[in-house]
Amino acid sequence: MSVDDAGWISELMTRWRPHDPVDPVVLRHRWANFRLDHVQGRWALRDAAGNVVGFGAANHAPWEREPGRIGDLDLNLAPEVRPQADGIIAALEEWLRREGARAAAADAEGDEHWLLAALAARRYEQVSAERFWKLDLLKRRGTLLELARESEAKVTSQGLALLTFDRFLNRPQAWDKVIALYQETEADIPQNPGDHMLTPPEIVAELQAPDVRPDRVWLVVAGDDLAGLSFLSFPPVRGQVWTGYTATARRYRGRGAAWAAKMATLAQAIELGVSEVRTGNDERNAPILRINERLGYELLPGWLRFRRPL
Ligand SMILES: CC(C)(COP(=O)(O)OP(=O)(O)OC[C@H]1O[C@@H](n2cnc3c(N)ncnc32)[C@H](O)[C@@H]1OP(=O)(O)O)[C@@H](O)C(=O)NCCC(=O)NCCS
């Protein structure tokens, strides 16, 4: 399957997991711009009548960048074929094995019981967990707008300033600074073996994606120096509004920069009429969990990562 299939695939994925709608334009952008150096396989699963009832994918980084030889697999199945998940996972593992992988990694949502059972039956073990949260912007509107004003005043009093990315892009080496911020901060996110940091072209693609607008990416700056960033993803066709990334350069940490940038995104979302936003964080990432708890985010079923040797 190619990027041109992203539209209809996103519709089926949304039908099979309606609580997590997939945006066709965003999916196409991801397929066209991310993991381009990975070896990728994508397959549609058809029933006897020729209807697509599942979608399976597997990929791995070039082995010189992934010495542990861990490959990823992913499957989305219509409810009627979920009982066959074991055989489908086995086929994806076989593809990875033929590619030279020594281990397979897979994700499942905490309440996707059919997939959790299939992974357990195939002897996958959980290696990490990501917490998912939602924040009700209608219920918390007054408090959040007040916190946004307070947090901006706090960073301003330290000689920092909040501004949107469109107003930073014409400054000297703007993209180099953003790439440097990503590279420094991504290294501080708790990682699992087999995870890969974004490459510079992927960082640019992330911030030029169809769900990310420069006038909705919030930066904290000190003059021309970039201290931090936070942005929400607004899927253009369908889907939830999610935090894309929040980061503060090491030299500016502990001064409320991430809090202020994140508050600015939430205040803007409130003004745009968004009723709810979501975020996801590795459960080992103490500072960002602290920020989300303070903001009043409510926990949703999380996202679990599994691995097994092949
Ligand atoms: C997470 C991150 C953005 C926080 O940036 P920051 O500007 O230092 O954050 P702030 O100063 O606004 O607030 C951090 C809060 O976490 C708390 N904190 C920091 N380290 C902590 C720890 N180890 N345990 C618990 N709380 C911690 C701080 O006390 C502060 O809370 P408080 O204001 O109630 O005291 C920054 O650490 C970072 O860039 N990390 C790497 C990228 C990342 O993990 N991004 C989020 C995941 S997508």
Describe the structure.
It is a single chain. By secondary structure, the protein is α+β, with helices and mostly antiparallel strands. It has 2 domains: 3-123, Gcn5-related N-acetyltransferase (GNAT) (Aminopeptidase); 132-300, Gcn5-related N-acetyltransferase (GNAT) (Aminopeptidase), CATH 3.40.630. 34% of the residues lie in helices and 29% in strands. The chain has 9 helices and 11 strands. It has helices spanning 6-16, 24-33, 85-98, 113-121, 141-156, 174-186, 200-207, 257-271, 286-295; strands spanning 39-46, 52-60, 70-77, 103-109, 125-136, 161-164, 217-222, 225-233, 241-248, 276-282, 298-309. An 11-stranded mixed beta sheet has the order 1-2-3-4-11-5-10-9-8-7-6, with helices on both faces. A hairpin with a 2-residue loop joins strand 7 and strand 8 (225-233). Helix 1 (6-16) crosses helix 2 (24-33). It starts with 5 loop residues before the first helix and ends with a strand. The mean pLDDT is 95. The chain binds coenzyme A. Residues 185, 188-189, 228, 245-248, 253-259, 281, 285-288, 290-291, 294 line the site of coenzyme A.
